[in-house]
Design brief:
alpha+beta, D-Maltodextrin-Binding Protein, domain 2, five-stranded mixed beta sheet, 30% helix, binds 2,5-anhydro-1,6-di-O-phosphono-D-glucitol, binds manganese (II) ion
Length: 336
């Protein structure tokens, strides 16, 4: 098969009159280059002194790892100068980051989780970067938080990089999901799989079961049935997998199916779930739906939720369609 680089793929998309204009192409080339830089930093590990805590907390009160801070800076610096962005926002910054006055402003908004699963860094387990691209509403010169608060259906593009045994970049522009593998010698991302598809049925589920005592009844009921396996109402055995890096768990589901859950629970009533809508749930929901899967908050389609805050949390159920529909039905039937 002829090798197609990410750049070649984007040029073809532009020619085919897809949603890729020159600025979106520049954006994706820059984001992919930033992911390559993050991949290199992660790959050096202790040799570059990048492991361990940064000694600081982000706006969500979470201890930052050195690589959370480094990855955020890599993405910021890479994206400031190109003229393609109106503003950026990140898990690691309380407020949106404005484009410095010395650079032109563009029409896109970029929001990202610079390093997802960062608790896994120090144990050498896969981590990733998640990003979502929106259009800046017309007539806004200095986009503040409100410019970003658009439902996921308005995403122009979403993707993630997973830094595992291979570094991969997964991308959707609203026309299927495509997988690129980093060729480390050439330094370019090569298209290795087009139109990824999530099987509607699965025998694998992913949830942090140590939170079981805090779950709501529909989640407990659903998981009990999965665990009962052949002896229970489902009549077949299921396996459980939990990497604790959303990118790695979602990537497994994109590869061979499965259902991923981070439900709302009773640990802290001020937090409706753990994952963040704008830069974790929305981009992943867009990708999963584009691969034929489903994504809900247990009640509604994630992509249709109207965000109220940049760092808003949301319950997440995504992956193989039939399982997501079932656990959503359990919520709706319980009136939960
Ligand atoms: P982040 O490292 O960006 O804060 O995200 C971590 C998230 C997600 O990647 C993962 O699915 C989940 O937290 C793991 O949560 P547990 O610690 O409950 O396993
Ligand atoms: Mn994350
Ligand atoms: Mn993160």
């Amino acid at each position: 098969m002829k090798r197609m680089t990410l750049m070649h793929f984007l040029v073809e998309q532009q020619r085919a009159d897809g949603p890729v204009d020159a600025n979106l192409r520049l954006l994706l080339e820059i984001v992919s280059r930033a992911c390559k830089a993050i991949s290199i930093a992660i790959g050096k590990g202790a040799l570059a002194g990048v492991l361990g805590g940064a000694g600081s907390e982000n706006v969500q009160g979470e201890a930052q790892k050195k690589l959370d801070v480094i990855s955020n800076e890599i993405l910021l610096e890479a994206n400031e100068w190109g003229g393609h962005l109106a503003a950026l926002a990140s898990e690691e910054m309380e407020h949106p980051h404005q484009i410095p006055n010395r650079y032109p402003r563009g029409e896109y908004l970029l929001v990202f989780d610079p390093l997802d699963g960062s608790s896994n860094i120090d144990v050498n387990v896969s981590v990733g970067t998640i990003f979502s691209v929106l259009r800046c509403p017309e007539g806004i010169a200095e986009p503040d938080e409100s410019a970003f608060l658009q439902p996921g259906t308005r995403q122009v593009c979403a993707g993630y990089a997973v830094y595992g045994p291979a570094t991969l970049l997964i991308l959707t522009l609203g026309d299927g999901v495509h997988c690129f593998t980093l060729d480390r010698e050439m330094g370019s991302f090569i298209l290795t799989q087009s139109n990824l598809s999530i099987p509607a049925d699965t025998k694998e589920f992913a949830i942090n079961a140590s939170n079981a005592r805090f779950w709501e009844p529909p989640v407990s009921c659903y998981i009990d049935e999965l665990i009962a396996g052949k002896d229970g109402p489902r009549g077949r055995d299921f396996k459980m997998r939990w990497v604790a890096s959303m990118v790695a768990d979602v990537h497994r589901i994109l590869t061979r199916g499965g259902v991923f859950m981070y439900p709302r629970d009773r640990r802290d009533p001020t937090k409706p779930g753990k994952l963040r809508l704008m830069y974790e749930a929305n981009p992943m929901a867009f990708i999963v739906e584009q691969a034929g899967g489903a994504a809900t908050d247990g009640r509604r389609r994630i992509l249709e939720l109207q965000p109220e805050h940049l760092h808003q949390r949301v319950p997440v159920f995504l992956g193989s369609r039939n399982e997501v529909e079932r656990v959503t039905r359990y919520h709706l039937e319980a009136g939960a």
